[in-house]
Amino acid sequence: xxxxxxxxxxxxxxxxxxxxxxxxxxxxxxxxxxxxxxxxxxxxxxxxxxxxxxxxxxxxxxxxxxxxxxxxxxxxxxxxxxxxxxxxxxxxxxxxxxxxxxxxxxxxxxxxxxxxxxxxxxxxxxxxxxxxxxxxxxxxxxxxxxxxxxxxxxxxxxxxxxxxxxxx
Amino acid sequence: xxxxxxxxxxxxxxxxxxxxxxxxxxxxxxxxxxxxxxxxxxxxxxxxxxxxxxxxxxxxxxxxxxxxxxxxxxxxxxxxxxxxxxxxxxxxxxxxxxxxxxxxxxxxxxxxxxxxxxxxxxxxxxxxxxxxxxxxxxxxxxxxxxxxxxxxxxxxxxxxxxxxxxxxxxxxxxxxxxxxxxxxxxxxxxxxxxxxxxxxxxxxxxxxxxxxxxxxxxxxxxxx
Lengths: 168, 224
Prior knowledge:
By secondary structure, chain A is mainly α. Chain A contains eight helices and no strands. Chain B is an all-alpha fold. Chain B has helices at 3-20, 25-31, 45-71, 78-107, 114-126, 129-136, 149-154, 157-180, 189-194, 201-216. Chains A and B meet through helix 1, helix 2, helix 3, helix 5 and helix 6 of A and helix 1, helix 2, helix 5 and helix 10 of B.
């Protein structure tokens, strides 16, 4: 069991080292800036409150992905005002949105938008896939079989490809 | 766009984040002083208020009815007495189940795998349908509490027929709702009609999430 001060230092260290995980998850589950700040705060509170239960048999990133994704999905479910936030992008609206941006920025914006449109669990899977996690690690974070991870990723990738091809 | 291109594109997010992320160290420090909220502390004020009113209703109702049963039973209007008793007992049962389910939701670990945690949470949320089913069971007593014995002797057949029909309809409706409000009927039109509106949004989202989880499980089996 960690001492309070030790816990506090550990907390600040992992937040500083792995803040990217929290920001990326929050960004894809919450497009609204104000909501996103609330979500980030909720994630950090949950991390702090679970810190004493941290088991070093897991990689810290695995543990953080579990907390941040669980908090993000629960946050989305609890909130009533977030209904229908993601309006699917049509060819016309995409072109308007993408004016004055470099090609790479455009593609990234589209990718983020398409991922945002996915269902909650598919979205979690896609974030982990794009973060280059191994199928074994993804299976451990999500709690599913390794073979199922491969099947699901292929299906979602097909969906994304088809969304990209609709707009190009 | 192939796999490599997709991942390379995603990696540019990391670069962007590195440039823009200035983690507020003070915020992280402040969070370490946040007190752990208990189940009551983590609830929204409006929900707390509703539960408080429900609790007060049960306590006052039980006190009053207990007094009538103990002291003035002979003179009491039996229709009112038994209707009110059924209503208070059903409200107490619903409140008890609601609190029990809330305590289970509160105990779910966010550090467990996503599918496991979300399935537990969504199942618990969807099981709050039981509370709704029980509350619907009290519909008939709202049609009988105002009856009295003199009414039975003074009213004509037509008048009695009308009030009896209303009560029978309420009984049929409440039993039908009690038996049919369940996860399996989630896609029915009437189900969406009853559970429309913001208040029911978390429940409907939980149902949707369970459907997603079902799709991820090898046997596709979701028990509520």
